[in-house]
Specification:
By secondary structure, the chain is an alpha+beta fold. It is 50% helix and 19% strand. The chain has eleven helices and eight strands. A three-stranded antiparallel beta sheet has the order 1-2-3. Strands 4-5-8 form a three-stranded antiparallel beta sheet. A two-stranded antiparallel sheet has the order 6-7. Strand 4 and strand 5 form a beta hairpin. Helix 1 crosses helix 2, helix 2 crosses helix 3 and helix 4 runs antiparallel to helix 6. About 4% of the residues have low confidence.
Amino acid sequence: MAAITASMVAELRGRTDAPMMECKKALTEAEGDLGKAEELLRVKLGNKAGKAASRVTAEGVVTSFIDGTTGALLEVNCETDFVTKNDSFLALAQAAAELIAKQNPADVAALGALAYSQDGFGPTLEDVRKGLIGKIGENMTFRRFTRFSGNKLAAYLHGTRIGVMVEFEGDETAAKDTAMHIAAMKPVALTSADVPAELIEKERAVAAGKAEEDRKAAEAEGKKPQPADIVAKRIEGGVAKYLKEVSLHNQAFVKNDKQTVEQMLKATGTSVKSFTLYVVGEGIEKKVDDFAAEVAAQVAAAKAAA
């Protein structure tokens, strides 16, 4: 039986990009033959993982971790909802959130380089991710995370698809209620003053476009259009309404719509410093399979080959 050295494992890993433990297993099975070991890995993991790596990961989970005033919110993506219920995938996501909070990686690449072993894969989180791609047969990616430190924290997870982390001072119940409210109402900023300028300008453009349509309709009916100053007030009124709808403080509190979130927080002696909201797959273009078209294409290809 040939001795399996660290250099042999490293060489095989460089050839295949397979997890270290899988390389060692393959070399053992191949009795130290690098070529045979590479072939074994290509069959077991390489081709499977390589194909999976190009597929869109628009499903997934949001998970959180809090330890005192340190915490993390993380989105991990996969291809299908089925995998979001897989114990190994869920364990990977939760472990990654804890690593973020405790070790403060700079980015996703740094996160993947952290030490972690699971299901026989390792010694890094990235090795485990690649190993599980091969084992489960589906691509999975660490998409984004936010780390928190220095303030009291409250988290709310709506199932596994929506996650919120709130930094606050004051009452913990009020903070958790605020996190739940954010998950339901999805504000874009803490206050009206914090709403990004590009969103405001987009809303102003929409309001101006609506005003122009109203002007054209009035002219078509032979009516006198509204004066420019009135139109300008209507546009700014629409923008002001939008700002109230998308800023957390101005929204009607979901558990008591007779008061705003700001009023609820003030009544409980609580202040929210910041919040982060993640929705699984937000902004990812999902692939929509046209099964009928796929079958037709296969039939056409078969006829052409004949």
